[in-house]
């Protein structure tokens, strides 16, 4: 049961990441506000953030990954 929960959670997070990167409107899973995506050129730490600080995914890019 625990592995099934982890797999679902990982799939949910991967879906949020993919949708946000593609420019889709993605709601915070906790409060429902629209998540904010900061890319590597935003001047802020790359990631996906809830404006209410309820949810965040920090992203780390290597220099070789940028522009692919």
Key attributes of the depicted protein:
68 residues, alpha+beta, three-stranded antiparallel sheet, globular
In brief:
This protein is of the alpha+beta class. The protein has one domain (2-60). 29% of the residues lie in helices and 13% in strands.
Please specify the SSE layout and strand pairing:
Elements: H1 2-21, E1 36-38, E2 47-49, E3 56-58
Antiparallel strand pairs: 1-2, 2-3
Walk me through the structure:
The N and C termini lie far apart (37 Å). Strands 1-2-3 form a three-stranded antiparallel β-sheet, with helices on one face. Helix content is 29%, strand content 13%. The model has no long low-confidence stretch (mean pLDDT 88). It has 68 residues and is α+β, with helices and mostly antiparallel strands. 9% of the residues are buried. It is globular and about 35 Å long. The protein has one domain (2-60).
């Amino acid at each position: 049961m625990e592995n099934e929960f982890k797999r679902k959670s990982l799939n949910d997070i991967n879906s949020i990441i993919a949708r946000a990167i593609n420019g889709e409107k993605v709601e915070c899973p906790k409060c429902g506000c629209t998540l904010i995506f900061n890319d590597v050129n935003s001047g802020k730490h790359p990631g996906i953030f809830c404006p209410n600080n309820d949810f965040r995914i920090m992203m780390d890019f290597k220099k070789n990954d940028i522009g692919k």
